[in-house]
Amino acid sequence: MVVKETGRFAGLAYLVVIVLSIPGYVTLTRLLNGDPHAVLASLATSRTAFVLAVASSAIGFLAWIVLGALLYRLMSSAGRVAGVCMVIFAIAGTAMNLIALWQLLPLAGPSDSMDSAAFASVVNGYKRLLQQAQLFSGLWLFPFGWLVVRSRVVPRVLGFCLILAGFFWLLQFATAFEPGLDRSLAFRIASAPTGISVMIGEFGTCLWLLIRGARDPEAGASTSRVAMPT
Q1: pTM, whole model, 2 decimals?
Q2: pLDDT tens across 115-157, in order?
Q3: Do 122 and 115 contact (CB within 8 A), yes or no?
Q4: By the 8 A CB rule, do 13 and 206 touch?
Q5: Contact 145/85 with Cβ under 8 angstroms?
């Protein structure tokens, strides 16, 4: 019962990550894209939406740490090294995303004193850090997926999808260093199946944990031992 309930709490934390960080990102993208003069004028009338989007994103990212801690508690018996790596990547990703949001704080105040050059510097800094943070969005899914496969707290197919989803986020990270990469045919071919894996792996795991809870990881780990430091 404790394992099942821990799984449900992990599912709830995962849901918070999804329902707060994604809408926050979408709202900020919508508000900040466009001609700097027009965006600055728009922010003056959309200040509440902007602040709520920043707060929503921040809470969603902080929930990532809670999720990592709950998953470690749930699955570390199947591999402590992988569990520690998973938590470290979650903390690092949260920190980088929060630093990215910090870049936007000047826009929360009166914008009449900010010129277009200053605005572009703020927004470009935010976007650059946010894109680089995708490194940790990808890296944390590798030990997470591995632990799912090994412990079987949720169906193993979700674990394999989580591992594949990690490559999707690493592809997004790569675009920070190669402008136009996302428009290449090779990128689109590689990102199509991995993007689907994000939907299946992350959303599927979230819903399974939230609705069904977690299976006993000891039973799964005992039947799928592989060579890995513990």
Answers
A1: 0.85
A2: 778 888 888 889 889 988 999 999 999 999 999 999 999 999 9
A3: no
A4: no
A5: no
